[in-house]
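Example record used in the benchmark description.
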Amino acid sequence: MNNNIALLDILRDINIDKISKKEITFFHKKKILITGVSGLIGINLLFFLHKISEKEKVSIQIDGIFNTSLFKFVKIFFKDNKNISFKKIDLTKKIINAKKKYDLIFHCAGYGQPAKFLKFKTSTYKLNSFSIMNLKDNLKKKGKFIYMSSTEIYSGNENLCIEKSIGRTTTSHPRSSYIESKKFGESYILNCIDNFLIFRVCLTYGPGVKFNDERILNILLLRAIKEKRINIYGGLNQLRSNLYISDAINMIIKSTVRFNKEIFNINNHNMTTINKMAQFISKISNKKIKNHKSFLKGSPNVIKISNKKILKSIKYKISTSLNDGIMKTYKWYLNLVNH
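Model output (structure tokens):
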């Protein structure tokens, strides 16, 4: 039980200080659907909305959809909350009753980890096409659809990418199931849904991740906890721009309140090498690093994404440093292992 409390405390510790009272009031009496509520963004959106509802006593009704698994301690925590419900649905096979209408739909369901979307290609296509087309029927007349797309659509573009940039990969690219289906999802929303926001998300991390999240930072943290050394596959000099989840959620929430029919990059402009991340993880875990020279097919060496549009639009400054974010995620994993 102590580990349950520790994990809940970490999730509930999400920073909401940058959200104004006026922005919080926007969500009053809103009925919200979060797909992929068991994923990193989904679960943090859930706890974020719950926290702002508690802070200002606003009424928010949330339905959370998940397919794989939702942490049991999360279900227990919300079991007596009449405004929050969970349901297990495979959105690639089943639709939500069209009679259920929502003011806001956050479509977070999908495979953000390369190892996953490379393995589950058909589901990847469906979640970014079939599922979106069906979820449209669950929007209220003036409802807003918020889509978690990906900066992977810029793949092949070696320049600094802004929201008007395009990728330079073909359909034969190893990651084309993910890249092309995300493009389709965006295209459908732009042409067929009246009110929307599209967030091209890049390398978010933090508490809420599961053991099977196979993005490089999470893998390194788990190896530091579970193994005798930190094995690295992918090249120490590869650059990454990881964004801590609390900052990502703040950016998503503030944009949802203020804007409509916009596309925003959600990422950190500060880049660092895998080596620098690994060295810090090595320091806090007291584990040595072992480098192996191989990596996933299609893995990019450099991802250069501009987030100036969203930071300027919402007047936001990213506040969590990489080291602080890694330490918080490390503590999450330590408690999860014990749990």
